[in-house]
């Protein structure tokens, strides 16, 4: 198996046809077809379905595509690590952000990276936490912001912030409490719109409920922050989340948030990298920049409900 075969295979999948991939790669199509055939013979599986409309990955091809991407990224990172300057880091760095963090961190980080490290191409990917774990483990991303739920031992982690979690609903919602705060048992009695079990917020809520002998019974599961917002505004229920992803609606008065007590809920946010795949100079520069930007956002109050660890 050769690196060029991996590059060829990824290009075919990305462009959806052998002919388009051949044009992009500047390789004759018969040669491309031959390399693909040799790769499939070596692996002993069919990677692509061919048709007049183009190509589609088989189940085996989808699995191999993820590994091929990770390998090619690590090769590119290794090349960058030995050629880039420590004083002027350059290259590509991919950072994964959970949906509920990107609203607070993504834009300030992009602006800071562009100002301080113009030769670094910072790529942000927004995913649910479970996907970020897997992508970081396989090397498809260099860094990820994750929630410390006691399962981060495979990674090298730096504590980032502690975020307060609040009870949030539409301003005129029947689920709105009478005062300025709500107890955790009271919050659980409402119809809650929450991310699925693979999301970083949900395990924290469920584990705390179990500790108290309570259940999260009336739950509507939505993994998209945009759809979750729409469901709250439609009056379908309330949620338990940090304020940051819903800040625009809270500032406009469309939603209200309430402190949770008995017990107080919060989550620990960490910046993580692989223990097995070293960061390039550019990766280390971005890592330090994330820590600096998070501290600046907390200090100025722009990351609402968060304080630096």
Polypeptide structure, described:
GO terms for molecular function: DNA binding; DNA-binding transcription factor activity. With 309 residues, this protein is an alpha/beta fold. The chain folds into three domains: 73 residues, Arc Repressor Mutant, subunit A (Orthogonal Bundle); 115 residues, D-Maltodextrin-Binding Protein, domain 2 (3-Layer(aba) Sandwich), CATH 3.40.190; 99 residues, 3-Layer(aba) Sandwich (D-Maltodextrin-Binding Protein, domain 2), CATH 3.40.190. It is built from eleven helices and 14 strands. Helix 1 packs across helix 4. The longest helix is centred in the first third of the chain and has 25 residues. The N and C termini lie far apart (46 Å). The mean pLDDT is 90.
The top level CATH class name of the largest domain: Alpha Beta
Q: Approximately what portion of the residues adopt beta-strand conformation?
A: 15-25%
Number of domains: 3
Strand order of the largest sheet: 4-3-5-13-6-14
Terminal Cα span: 46 Å
The rough form would be described as globular
Order of helices and strands: HHHEEHEHEHEEEEHEHEHEHEEHE
